[in-house]
Amino acid sequence: MTDFRLHGSKVLAVSLGGDAVKAKNGSMVAYEGRMAFKKLTGGGEGLRGMVSRRLTGEQMTVMEVKGDGVCYFADEARDINLVRLSGEKLHVEASNLLCTDSGLRTGTTFTGLRGASQGNGLFTTTVEGTGQAALLSTGPAVLLRVSQGAPLQVDPGAYVGHQGELRQSFQSGVNFRTVMGEGSGESFQIRFEGEGLVYVQPSERATVGGDL
Amino acid sequence: MPFRELSAKLVEAQLVPGQRMFSQRGAMVAYKGEVSFTPNIQGGQGGFGSMIGRRVANEATPLMTVEGRGTVMFGHGGHHVEVIELDGDTLCVEADRLLAFDGSLQQGTMFLGKDGGVMGMVRGQMTGQGLFTTTLQGKGGAAVMAHGGIIRLPITPDHPVHVDPQAYVAHHGDVRNRLSSALSWRDMVGRGSGEAFQLELSGDGAVFVQASEEKL
């Protein structure tokens, strides 16, 4: 049985009993017991996944870790958030996905204009199934709840992932000030409506929208 | 024990007269009381011979001697700091990761080829340690820096630990290490998992691992 545990906020300890997990390539820092590492081409989604990842630019270099013992993962001292899924779908940027359980499937979906404003392309990664996933965030992530009638606006650079029944739209506040180079740096937002949870990090990636 | 962790990135040391302490030069952030800081040209203990040894071994980090009465706070570059208490055993650590340590600890340099022959030297190159590493021996505390948090993994004779060379920080106790490689044809064709080399530590002691694969 795979078990995800956090050692502090920046190291993930995964106990494996002969099964396998998928993890970001090169993120292992230590292990006890016996482990084998194998790179999965195309995110381990088969030939079709490989082609669609190439085409969508949502590249994810993933390795399969299989063995018996405890494996420790960490990535550039970024914070780790554990998410437990039981059938629902989690959307996350490929660069923010550290590790997924063998019970979870990954794929790609179209996100529209939002992706382009994040500097992440037009596609995002989805994780679905039953099991645990570990997300990376720069600084501890906050979990914001979205409910009917209370939409949430998020800076594209601070967005980490979301789950639940959410519709997302892209809104811009570009006005003549932005054109004059006097923008507030907050010209683009992603708007979430519906019921669900959004993960936001206390740091902003460099995005196209952030410069405006 | 003179070191106390104030936060994840700051340690406080108690100083009493007659006891001295070494720290990386410029790592003091604040102090209370009567404390003097003198640059240590020899780069640590052991007199002129050891100084030459450290220079040759490229383990000569500028150190200063801290003496007096009071409390001193140390921090450097926003790196995480971990206090490691030694009770007679030996700590192996890179000189530039060493923030401050007790004057009661014996400082030395160790040739990596010594406990691993040619592979030890290869290992040093792989981990970015070079051919030499600094050892501290005795009773006392040492403050060690790392990028991101540090976790401590115990090593027992029937329970070896494998560590990513880039995430390795330090180890103490009676530990043997060797570089194990899992190179396969996949790495040759650029399809490696990024985990081709691992440091295998076995024996009796503990290893400290940082939450990042970045060097200081």
Q: Helical element count of chain B?
A: 3
Q: Give the class-level CATH name of chain A.
A: Alpha Beta
Helix content range of chain B: 10-25%
Distance between the termini of chain A: 48 Å
In CATH, the homologous superfamily of chain B goes by the name Mitochondrial biogenesis AIM24
At the fourth level of CATH, the homologous superfamily of chain A is Mitochondrial biogenesis AIM24
The biggest sheet of chain A amounts to: 12 strands, antiparallel
CATH topology (level 3) name of chain A: Double-stranded beta-helix
CATH architectural name of chain A: 4-Layer Sandwich
- The CATH top-level class label of chain B: Alpha Beta
State the total count of DSSP E strands of chain A: 12
Let me know the average pLDDT of chain B: 80
Biggest sheet features of chain B: 13 strands, antiparallel
Number of domains of chain A: 1
The helix/strand order of chain A is EEEHEEEEHEEEEHE
Second-tier CATH architecture of chain B:
4-Layer Sandwich
Assembly of the depicted chains: heterodimer
Structure report:
The complex is a heterodimer of chains A (212) and B (216). With 212 residues, chain A is mostly beta strands. Chain A has a single domain (3-211), classed as Double-stranded beta-helix. Chain A contains three helices and twelve strands, in the order βββαββββαββββαβ. In chain A, strands 1, 2, 3, 4, 5, 6, 7, 8, 9, 10, 11 and 12 form a twelve-stranded antiparallel sheet that branches. In chain A, strand 1 and strand 2 (11-24) form a beta hairpin. The relative contact order of chain A is 0.17. The mean pLDDT of chain A is 80. By secondary structure, chain B is mainly beta. Chain B has helices at 47-57, 117-127, 185-188, and strands at 3-7, 10-15, 21-24, 28-40, 63-74, 80-93, 98-102, 106-111, 132-146, 150-155, 161-163, 168-181, 197-210. Chain B is elongated. In chain B, strands 1, 2, 3, 4, 5, 6, 7, 8, 9, 10, 11, 12 and 13 form a 13-stranded antiparallel sheet that branches. Chain B has one domain: 4-Layer Sandwich (Double-stranded beta-helix), CATH 3.60.160.10. Chain B contains three helices and 13 strands; from the N terminus they run E-E-E-E-H-E-E-E-E-H-E-E-E-E-H-E. Strand 3 of chain A pairs antiparallel with strand 11 of chain B.
